[in-house]
Amino acid sequence: MKCPTCGKEMEPGLLIAESFIGGAKWVGGHDGKPEKEKLVSPDLLGNVKLLGYRCRSCRQLVLKY
Ligand SMILES: [Zn+2]
Description:
Bound molecules: zinc ion
Largest sheet: 3 strands, antiparallel
Structural class: mainly beta
Shape: flat
């Protein structure tokens, strides 16, 4: 997977977030009224895992849910 910003090869991995109650939520919009949408439920240990890629050059993540 190539970085959409700089075009360099991205590194595969996982983003792990700890969220016992609500899981991972997406908050849409950078301005105005935010909309929250639940994307991924937590596992039995309260971890939310998102598969994705990161670019070390521009510190960017591309995540799948
Ligand atoms: Zn990049």
